[in-house]
Amino acid sequence: MLDYALLDALAAVVRHGSFERAARELNVTPSAISQRVKLLEERVGSVLVKRGTPCVATTSGALLCRHTERVQLLEAELAGPLPALPGASLQAWPTLRVAVNDDSVGTWFIDAIAGFCTQREMRLDLVIDDQDHTAQLIRDGSVQGAVTTQAEPVQGCRSTRLGRMRYLAVCTPVFHARHFADGVSRETLRRAPCVDFNPKDELQKRFMRKITRADIDPPKHWIPHVAGFLRACVTGLGWGMCPERMVAPHLERGELIDMLPGRHLDVDLYWQSWRLSIGWLDEFGLALRKQAAQLLD
Amino acid sequence: MLDYALLDALAAVVRHGSFERAARELNVTPSAISQRVKLLEERVGSVLVKRGTPCVATTSGALLCRHTERVQLLEAELAGPLPALPGASLQAWPTLRVAVNDDSVGTWFIDAIAGFCTQREMRLDLVIDDQDHTAQLIRDGSVQGAVTTQAEPVQGCRSTRLGRMRYLAVCTPVFHARHFADGVSRETLRRAPCVDFNPKDELQKRFMRKITRADIDPPKHWIPHVAGFLRACVTGLGWGMCPERMVAPHLERGELIDMLPGRHLDVDLYWQSWRLSIGWLDEFGLALRKQAAQLLD
Predict the structure, then answer these.
(1) Is A225 on the interface with B (CB under 8 A)?
(2) Taking the domains of chain A in order of start, what are their residue ranges?
(3) Burial (CB count <10 Å: 0-12, 13-18, 19+), residue A297
């Protein structure tokens, strides 16, 4: 069998992005971690971690991490029938490492999974990324499951639909009077600043293309923060696409207006997770789907 | 003089993290961007960009980017007295690239700067990082200013105090009854799950050390998301340190309780920015300080 003391060290370095933090988690010195990873690299015959800030797995390193985390999950499952099994901490609080998009975490995701994690005593380790990019994280094995826009199953995973998030184009009444008094058109959209979450965020662009059938490149604020994005719209920095459920109270109070009622963007969300038949990963998926049915459209 | 068409391409690649997106911003083909960066690398005699996802500047690359952005800022300032100067887009919407900690963006920062950016027609490009790490971003030149916990000025920068954020240890009443019925002690803290923002977040650890004079390592959820972090506390996943202003309504409604009233952590925040005497960078600092005085303690 493989040497799991070495693999555990590797997985901790990649999970934490640093030898120091991995050492702290495993209660050993950083030099012990470094020796274990080096030894493993010698045995495998290739570099497994790119040293840097943060430390990142190479392709071979990622494969080994993925394998190790699966074994850890399977081990942790033994804690149910064999609670007295030594090996301790991981079993007491197994880790669910999941990739989720920012807007889901900002709206429905935590509420959907809190009960399950509390009951099962599972640690939640969220990786946040754009909804169009979370599938990549499950593909390279760095998470066990992902909330994603990709319907087609990633290899080795199963995919189920969670529901739909509706996005509205919103801005303040003052912003609207200043920039869109002549209507929402190619010309006015070109000059009005919009808010983008980050360079990966294509929602504003997609909306403009849908409305005008043109690629428009307005001045853009970049606010990679859900609450900050919403505040940027509410304070009149720019217009932006916000989840309908998030802006409902602001629309009601008249702080924001729907720029083009009826012209929304819908984003379908899917849950993809490893096809491993790990009991609680399956049960987590079930619980998530059930809650999502209530919290999403 | 240096060839600024090449430098502009380099800075765009580093800003966007990708040749494709840089090409889109500068309205040229990706291969044109790639040629410009390569030519610059040949002239300088060293690699300037580590190709990857995302593309990252090398040390020399970062120095050139920093220089280029400073020149762009100085050029943009000319737009005031010389509005008809050709060179266009950057002048119309100069970019303020600023590093801010998550909790500031989630509470006071956007409200503090929205008016200034709207009046001056400045694009905001936020880089979000932990408050103890934003100083690094200004040190390596990737941002023009930073909200940071570091009081001592970074080389080439000036530092001014913005105010204080107060953090309270909070959890739900149910969580408290389950985990802290016997008091908040070493023993109970060791078993109660807490919420950490990410591995860099030391607030929970610092609080436990303050209370117990011991290093305690409880099960930790990682929720790298301000709204998600708060929801994780409100839904009873764990206890966590939250900004007082953010949890005030939850405390009032009884959804959360202050675990140890009077035992908070205070974090002093500073604004550090380039000592360049760029008019609006100075004015931005002034506006920020003035607003922060009202929005922080």
Answers:
(1) yes
(2) 1-91, 93-297
(3) exposed
- Sequence-distant (6+) residues with CB within 8 A of A187 are none
How far apart are alpha carbons B114 and B111 in whole angstroms? 6
Per the CB < 8 Å rule, is B106 touching A225? yes
Is there a common fold for A1-91 and A93-297? no
Chain A contacts of B233, Cβ < 8 Å? none
Report the C-alpha gap between A297 and A242 in whole angstroms: 15
- Report how far residue B231's alpha carbon sits from residue B237's, in angstroms, rounded to the nearest whole number: 9
The residue type of B234 is V
Residue B89 has pLDDT above 50, yes or no: no
Is A93-297 assigned to CATH 1.10.3720.10? no
* Contact in structure between B68 and B37 (CB atoms under 8 Å): no
Q: Are B183 and B155 in contact (CB under 8 A)?
A: no
Report ipTM for this prediction: 0.71
Q: Which residues on chain B are in Cβ contact (under 8 Å) with A24?
A: 217
- Residue B84 confidence (pLDDT): 53
- Give yes or no for B193 touching A (CB within 8 A): yes
How far is the alpha carbon of B111 from chain A, nearest alpha carbon, in Å?
Answer: 6
Query: In the CATH hierarchy, which fold is given to the domain comprising B1-83?
Result: Arc Repressor Mutant, subunit A (1.10.10)
Which CATH number describes the domain made up of A1-91?
A: 1.10.10.10
Residues of B in contact with A199 (CB under 8 A): 16-18, 21
A250 touches chain B (CB under 8 A): no
Q: Which residues of B, range 7-36, sit inside 8 Å of A by Cβ?
A: 16-18, 21, 24
Q: Give pLDDT, residue A81.
A: 60
Sign of the torsion angle spanned by Cα atoms B33, B37, B40, B42: negative
Task: Identify the CA nearest to A70 among candidates A270, A287, A272, A275.
Answer: A275
B111/A235 CB distance under 8 A: yes
Which residues in chain A show pLDDT less than 50? 88-91
How far, in Å, CA of A134 to CA of A92, rounded?
Answer: 28
Measured CA to CA, the distance from residue A56 to residue A49 in angstroms comes to 6
Q: For the segment B192-221, what is each residue's pLDDT rounded down to a tens digit?
A: 999 998 877 889 999 999 999 998 989 889
Per-residue exposure over B159-179, b if at least 16 CB sit within 10 Å of its own CB, e if not: beebbebebbbbbbeebbeeb
Element (H, E) at B78: helix B59-78
Average pLDDT, chain A: 86
Could you tell me the two tokens for A79?
Answer: 């804690």
Whose tokens are 């930073």? That residue is B146
Res B88: pLDDT = 38
Beta bridge partners of B126: B98
What are φ and ψ of residue A97, in 5° steps?
Answer: -105, 110
The answer, for B221 touching chain A at a CB cutoff of 8 Å, is yes
| A124 and B CB contact within 8 Å | yes
The pLDDT assigned to B37 comes to 94
Phi/psi zone of residue A172: left (φ > 0), alpha (ψ -120 to 50 degrees), beta?
beta
